[in-house]
Write the structure tokens for this entry.
Amino acid sequence: MEKRGVSILLALTALCLSNAGCATNENYGPIRVQNYTETIRVACIGDSITYGSSIKNRVRDCYPAQLARMLGPKWETRNFGVSGATLLKKGDKPYWQEKAFRDAVAYNSHVVVIKLGTNDTKPQNWKFKNEFVSDYKDVIDRFADLPAKPRIWICYPVPAYPERWGISDTRIRNEVIPLVKRVAREKDVPVIDLYKPLSNRPELFPDLIHPNAAGAGLIAKQVYKTLTGSEGPDKTSQHALPRVLIIGDSISIGYFEPTVELLKGKAIAHHNPGNAQHTANGLKRLKEWLGEAKWDVIHFNHGLHDLKYVDENGKNTSIEKGRQQIPIDQYEKNLEAIAKELKKTGAKLIFATTTPVPDGTQIRAKGDAKRYNAVAEKVMSKYDIAVNDLYSFALPRLKEIQREQNVHFNQHGSYLLAEQVAKSILKALEGSHGKKETSSSATWQNQLEKMASQAVLCRPVSASAAASTFTHSIRLELPQLVCKAFDIVSVFEAVEPPRRNVCEAVAGACNCARHRCDRVPVPT
């Protein structure tokens, strides 16, 4: 009996090792996002179904684009689909010979999703079916050799209804899928089943072969579920909430998740896939990020990637050896073009100033963020776009919230930035853009005198309102009015919050007036 039990155990072990579904090695299971220190690059390899042929708004609704929106800002998804492409090297349009294949390899992705095989069922291609397995293995090996050592998934093709252009559902079901299973077993890679979820759904295939946007959404959901281990984002309870698009680089990626939490129940926030990088990239991909969705608010920033120093090949380099990736005059032109496009959306727009560059970053110069922000504010003023001044907010707190010799923020810093972002978005949704005032000098003098008298008595006036008023007094060269309240500096310590904040706002404003600085930090 004992020998029989051991035999059964050995048999089950052998079965498990030979079956891709039982494997427990690192090729299987969802991606652990926390293990990645950079944006997770996802390459979608495929044919016209991946490319999005026959979908009205292909750029927005192909499955890789829908997947990108599901995955969020910590991922970047690229579409490397080619219409008519075959897996077979001897097919009538081998994927191997396409530029998309070379681009996909150069992309050096962390995740590869391969969905090929549909066009291989055409008679002129399927006569080479005996080479299907070996060719598929070669594709897998090519990606497995990338420096990023990507996780690789291969897919069962979607069904055909039932045959067109020589593509045969019978061959997909009875021949291609068994061969894909064999490849998965022999190469020890997991499979995503796209055939079953789209079976018996002919309404999703208007031309019998290519899924429409809804069908592509089902593909995206299956891939999302596989990569993350969770179901796709549920939007059914959120459809009535305002939609917010946040465009930005890794700084915005850092504050995006806490912003989502702060807006919960009030608005649904989305982030452009991956890192928005510099303004030239923003111009190139803006329409893709906007899609055809109706956005209520768009909060955007470009700057840190514009002002950094690169060599002649576009690689990061020292300030002494390189040039700024986007010179400041071109930055202004690019921002103006972006502003024009964003104004067409009808959304309420908010530009976030670029956060400070500390000493020691090597590839960026301290002080450049201020110069680039000045240009950005000029553009935003021209197009009547609100400004969320994250630069001024972060500047007095850098030692506590920013990493040493690094433009990025610690967790607490990202949360504080998120609070500022959420506040600016909610103000926009309420109809208040928080634009800088353009009142006359006389009006400001009245407000300054009132503010100064309140601050002298440490009444609980708004700290942000105080700072805003004092900033304008500096621009109008009325520092004497600001400093009416500065005589009480000696009693600040005895004042309890939040009134102390008002006093600190007055003190900060007076210091600014004396040193002719541009902005007044807003106390928290």
User: Anything to note?
Assistant: The CA atoms of residues 204 and 214 lie 7 Å apart. The first helix runs from residue 2 to 18. The two ends are 74 Å apart (CA to CA).
